[in-house]
Amino acid sequence: MQSQFAFFASIAxxxxxxxxxxxxxxxxxxxxxxxGEALRPVLILHSFRFIxxxxxxxxxxxxxxxxxxAHSAAYGDIIAAILALLALISLPxxxxxxxxxxxxxxxxxxxxxAFYQANHAGxxxxxxxxxxxxxxxxxxLLLITHGLGFRILVxxxxxxxxxxxxxxx
Length: 169
Prior knowledge:
Layout: H1 2-30, H2 35-46, H3 67-90, H4 94-120, H5 133-154, H6 161-168
């Protein structure tokens, strides 16, 4: 039970730390850029989601890691990485924005599905093995940057978010 508490505490602290980093350093820079340019760093970060394939590698994770969780998380992540790369190479065109929307919806749903699958399968923190850092360090950052991505996507195409905010006030 203590290891589960440590696992959830790690996730919570990671959300807090990444939230501070995002509010202090990431968003202040992205809000000054036009939509296509602001999306680029978010998409580049998410292009590394291939790392979720680690859930399928024996020796990285415990052999008793629930396969329903492992397969869902790994394949969902690789699809998200591919969508991020497709959006990245298509920006700033309209098709790039559409793919960015698809990526954002898929990627967010995939992360929430991984939490659901882990809970449903009764996943224990120790079953993650060396992949423990993925949900405790990377997933909070990915969820926060998905939030940023949605914020960027809803702004007008050629207007930085800071200018749009002034017009709304």
